[in-house]
Amino acid sequence: MTALPFDDRDGTIWLDGRFVPWREARLHVLSHGLHYGGAVFEGVRVYGGRMFKSLEHAERLLSSARELNYSLPHSADELDAAAREVVRREGIVDGYVRPVAWRGSEQISVSGAGSTPHVAIAAWDWPHVFSADAARAGIRLRTSKWRRPDPATAPVRAKAASLYNICTLARDEAEAAGYDDALLLDLRGGLAEATGANLFLVIDGALHTPTPDSFLDGITRQTVIALAADLGIEVVERRIEPGELDRAEEVFLTGTAYEVQPVSGVDERTYRVGKVTAELAAAYARLVRSAS
Hints:
Elements: E1 12-15, E2 18-21, H1 32-36, E3 40-41, E4 44-47, E5 50-51, H2 54-67, H3 76-90, E6 95-103, E7 117-125, H4 132-137, E8 139-147, H5 164-176, E9 181-185, E10 191-194, E11 198-203, E12 206-210, H6 219-230, E13 235-238, E14 250-255, E15 259-266, E16 269-270, H7 275-290
Parallel strand pairs: 8-9, 8-15, 12-13
Antiparallel strand pairs: 1-2, 1-7, 3-6, 4-5, 4-6, 6-7, 9-10, 11-12, 11-14, 14-15, 15-16
């Protein structure tokens, strides 16, 4: 069955402080954010009708906009309340919420000064990213030629749409080669992340994860690190060389959409879904279903 296109659905979207019919939530083709990559966005999961860490995502949306040198005309509490109302109106039980902000069309210039910020929030049903088999047995990654940028050359602390060009190129390349996702290196050639998720390796029973100095320190990443501490699992944040994938006993990814996603292979390497991955996946599933 072909999925409905996202511009032709029933429902409502919160746009600049009011609810509008889904098909009428538009931006002008000369919006600054479209031409100069100034959009920022978030993804929030809904479990049993309740959003997980919605306020933290709203706060990060505001922070991302500030990183790109503009301010949004709403507080984190207002954005959180609007998102909750979107979920209620759309009747979402298990789904996904997408807040997005961009600069408007007052002028077209590299400078964004004078462009009015806009914010929209949409939600839709979306229980899983990968199939049930892939979620259970793991996905396969291919190391990409594309790398995460030097933090001196890009706003790496922002969840900025412009930074996802690299991810799109890497993901398309990986899928064309028969893989599920791509693994990106950092500017120095160390392990970084997948296209939309953070990376963890289990080595000698401890959890190792790359230092997030050239990519986003994800909210799910932070949540899983805290869960690992609660379970007595040692966590080591450090620079990790690609060759250390040979030492890993388990590999998994974390992200709002991915949750705790096992990895069954990276390039020619294969991995099992082991005890640490299973424990953290179960702990995360319990947490998101019990939290509001």
